[in-house]
Amino acid sequence: MTNPVLSGLIATVVASLCLATNATAAGKGPEKEQLKLGFIKLTDMAPLAIAYEKGYFEDEGLYVTLEPQANWKVVLDRVITGELDGAHMLAGQPLGASVGIGTKADVVTGFSMDLNGNAITVSNEVWALMKSGLATDEKGLPKHPIPATALKPALEKFKASGKSFKMAMVFPVSTHNYELRYWLAAGGISPGFYSPSDVTGQTRADILISVTPPPQMPATLEAGTINGYSVGEPWNQQAIFKGVGVPVITDYEIWKNNPEKVFGVTKAFADKNPRTHIALIKALTRAAIWLDDKNGANRKEAAQILSRPEYVGADYRVIANSMTGTFEYGRGDRRALPDFNVFFKYHANYPFYSDAIWYLTQMRRWGQIPDGKPDAWYLETAKKVYRPEVFVEAAKELVAEKKANAADFDFTSDGFRAPTKEFIDGVEYDGRKPNAYIEKLALGLKGQQKIESGNVVGK
Amino acid sequence: MSSASSVKTVELPASIEAAPQPPSRPASAPAASGPRFPRVNSAIDATIRALSFVGLGFLKPIVAITRGEDPRAHMRQLWLDLGAPVLAIAAFLLVWSQVSQGIQTSLGTIPGPAAVWEQTKALWADHLVQREKAVAFYERQEKRNAGKLAEDPAADMTIRKYTGKPTYIDQIFTSLKTVFAGFLLATLLAVPIGILCGASKTFNAMFNPLIQLFKPVSPLAWLPIVTMIVSAVYVTADPMFDKSFINSAVTVTLCSLWPTVINTAVGVGSIDRDLLNVARVLRLSRTTQLTKLVLPSALPYIFTGMRLSLGVGWMVLIAAEMLAQNPGLGKFVWDEFQNGSSESLSRIMVAVFTIGIIGFLLDRVMLALQNAFTYGPTR
Predict the structure, then answer these.
(1) Domain formed by A29-116+259-408, architecture
(2) What ranges do the domains of chain A cover?
(3) For the domain A118-255, what is the CATH code?
């Protein structure tokens, strides 16, 4: 440990020197070399761990310390206060912060960390009630994807015995929340509405959804506080190993190749340190390439690294279960799911405006955005937060340095993915027409609808 | 430990003005028989004093027995001081290893002593591995800096600190640093307040309700408030301390302040009236009264208070670190709990024992200091 006074002094001297030499240094090295990045113990933090372990950060002249955080709220708050320079974040967090859901702040992202990687797990008790009603294949195993309608017997049983059915997700603006709600709504079960007077999102809910930090999910399920949860890996596979629950559906089946975590920094940081931001994204992109390289041949090593206590820290076999191309639904029911964790393929790292807009449509659908907004507002908000130009710049530099192939990137994209119908309910999503999309969805607020004293009003 | 329990701690629930109980020196072991070899004996006496001074009083009977004094009485003392505790620890380990196998958690059975020892070694090995990595890190950095310098002689040559994870040993030191920072701050605040309360009835009446109000507040309640205030007030471009460090240290201060305040007040309040009368006759100035009379006679109380404060601070620190994410032992426990791997429980147990042992050692150090500053008829 070095003397903090001394290092503070040195840093001041260096900072003043930098000011003097700024003109010559611009466009070369990163403005800030010593960085602290936060993460949550989930397998999709892998690009950060790999970029560190493989020396990609150091190759860019960055000295990065990775620090696990207690929960998503802490991650966002510490990035905003500057205790962390950047962090592994939920895609909805920078957007939610920009719109002002919960905390209001300017957080931006130039790097989408992965696709898919989440699942929904129910307790053994609920699974026993669901199981009998499920369609089975020739081997007698349940057919996937399992629709949320399968939950109905359990819901009725709970209702009859006067208990409420509770599920957990990781954060109000998390992917997991929207995926869980999408799945339930597609099965005709109301996940409940948010409103300015109900920030818990339980108005008119058939299932009460609340927040639990990811690593505590299995323990909370085991304690019986919740009956199911929606979370990233390894916490679904952990439920199987601990024998406390059964994963019923992955997000890959709810929305094929959905965007998931992002690497978020404050707008102030991005504006002040553009070279550092690009350098970080270059290192992360190289890590993403490594993770998907050679058809996943590096995944075993990645799972080894992630199982260390300073990263995810769960046992290797638990992490490897979902990282190496398979997913275990129910004990022994292991199925091939090669795209469960995508870190680089399918332009996973490009921060598409259309991805941002999908999250915004879900925030509107469930009342986190209480009033209807025009289509232009959606694009404007997405552009405030998502910075494809930073990613493109980083990718171009990597190609020029021969650290990546130009063919793997789409340098001509206008920021929208092609419209897709690959959702569990088959509704087509086109990021250019958010309001038309909201109209097509089964449940949720549409047009100018609002929640007033517990009822949906307006149209 | 007889020496530990013989020191009276002064805790006053309702008022600071209750009758004081002066801290007594540890009762000495059975009286020594007549001196046969005066010089040797005086050396042995000095050893005994030194032993009890640093809190190793249980070794006294051994010294006495080697001297051939009243073996029966000393054997009994030895049994009480050393035999019984060791037996209890052995019994504890036995019960632990038996019971632990019977409890099945979702992370496997509760680890027994062997598994915990295994993890203790693993944590140490990990520390050594990290140190090697740090060396490699600095070598790489040197190389890179040399390359940068060759390219651009005016390049920024700051040596960056090792970026790897803090090891268990690092985390212990972070915790110690944090608790001492908080404790120091608490002492600096508490002693003057305590002196004011002890010296003036008005001050006492003013502070007493506040002290009683804040004393029972848990660190968990303080921390969110401290966090918000620190992040609002402590805004610098280049912070010297991590915010998480300040949050934990300030929380420790707020929780460990009270025993020192109360004990100091009692110490100052219970000064011998005769001494004050003498001072009045001699027309000593206020400052002289304070430094020559009040402080020396209150010191034993102040140290008793500080010893209690440090104990509270250490206990509170772990909770504060868990919440503030200050990279110390508390964060270690929290991270391992989150990991949920098959080794997590054993590692948490290692932390439990580390916390206990360090807490015990801190108490011994304070006891030694307390003895060193106790002046009085027994010294």
Answers:
(1) 3-Layer(aba) Sandwich (3.40)
(2) 29-116+259-408, 118-255
(3) 3.40.190.10
Same fold across A29-116+259-408 and A118-255: yes
Predicted TM-score (pTM) of this structure:
0.80
Of B149, B163, B175, which to mutate for an interface test with A (greatest number of A Cβ within 10 Å)? B163
Helices A274-292, A46-53: axis angle to 10 degrees equals: 100
A34 part of contact set with chain B, CB < 8 Å: yes
Is A61 in contact with B144 (Cβ distance < 8 A)? yes
Q: Which CATH number fits domain B167-372: 3.40.50.970, 1.10.3720.10, 3.40.50.1260, 2.170.150.40?
A: 1.10.3720.10
> Is the CB of residue B143 less than 8 Å from the CB of residue B136?
no
Q: Render each residue's pLDDT in chain A as its tens digit; 459 residues.
A: 445 555 554 554 444 444 443 333 345 688 998 999 999 999 999 999 999 999 999 999 999 999 998 889 989 999 998 889 999 999 999 999 999 988 899 999 999 999 999 999 999 999 999 988 888 888 888 888 999 999 999 999 999 999 999 999 999 999 999 999 999 999 999 999 999 888 899 999 999 999 998 888 998 999 999 999 999 988 999 899 889 999 999 999 999 999 999 999 999 999 999 999 999 999 999 999 999 998 889 999 999 999 999 999 989 988 998 898 889 998 888 899 999 999 999 999 999 999 999 999 999 999 999 999 999 999 999 999 999 999 999 999 999 999 999 999 989 999 999 999 999 999 999 999 999 999 999 899 998 999 888 888 887
User: Which residues in chain B have their CB less than 8 angstroms from residue A213's CB?
Assistant: 338
Residues from chain B contacting residue A55 (CB–CB below 8 Å): 140
Q: How far is A188 from chain B (nearest CA, A)?
A: 34
Task: Give me the phi and psi of A123, to 5 degrees please.
Answer: -70, 160
A313/B339 CB distance under 8 A: yes
Q: Is B325 on the interface with A (CB under 8 A)?
A: yes
Q: Which of B165, B340, B344 sits opposite A310 (nearest CB)?
A: B165
Conformational region of residue A2, where left means phi above 0, alpha means psi within -120 to 50, and beta covers everything else:
beta
* Extents of the domains making up chain B: 25-99, 111-165, 167-372
Q: Is B234 on the interface with A (CB under 8 A)?
A: no
Alpha-carbon distance A204 to B226, whole Å?
Answer: 37
Neighbour tally for B57: CB within 10 Å: 23
